[in-house]
Amino acid sequence: MDKVLLQQLVLDRLADDLRHTEQAARVAHETATHEENIAENKYDTLGLEASYLATGQARRAEAIRQAMTQWRSFRPRAFEPGQDIQIGALVCLVDANDQQQLLFLGPDGGSMKLVSEGHEVQVISGDAPLGRALLGKSEGDEVSLQAGPGRRQWEVLWIH
User: Fold this and answer.
1) For the chain, what is the domain count?
2) CA-CA distances (angstroms) from residue 56 to 28, 29, 33, 39?
3) How many angstroms separate the first and last alpha carbons of the chain?
4) To 10 degrees, the CA torsion angle through 15, 20, 22, 23?
5) Sequential pLDDT tens for the chain (160 residues)
6) What pTM does this model have?
7) Is the distance from CB of 70 to CB of 119 less than 8 angstroms?
8) 14 with 65, same domain?
9) 3-state helix/strand/coil string of 60-78
10) What GO molecular function terms would the record report (predicted)?
11) Is residue 20 in some structural domain?
């Protein structure tokens, strides 16, 4: 599977998210500053609430921009046999029911699912709980993660 293509898919998704977030921030700002939303009493909070929303959307947009910067400078590379999992790895996990899961460990802005070459790939960062559990593991290693009241376990099938 082409990691450069996966990187581009992540950048495309982040760009889409940024467009939507910036549009939402503009709408919230317009609502907050519209003359009809000037508070007439202490219970009239529509303008104030829209202002908080606009601020939150602006912060989210900045976080997406930072993630895009990291993904643009990211250079995925091939992994050699026997090499431990690091950022940039494409990992295949298998659970006790023989269900396989593809993961792409990236620098930031993960937590998205992509479809590439007919396969679903979960993009995660090394800061995500599963990402932290994977870092330093090798093919054949067991990985476990507390998930709610139970534990999930996988085996690292392969690393690319």
Assistant:
1) 2
2) 10, 11, 16, 21
3) 9
4) 140
5) 899 999 999 999 999 999 999 999 888 888 877 777 666 666 667 677 888 888 999 999 999 999 999 999 999 888 888 899 999 999 999 999 999 999 999 998 668 999 999 999 999 999 999 999 999 999 999 999 998 888 999 999 999 9
6) 0.84
7) no
8) yes
9) HHHHHHHHHHHHHHCCCCC
10) DNA binding; RNA polymerase binding; translation elongation factor activity
11) yes
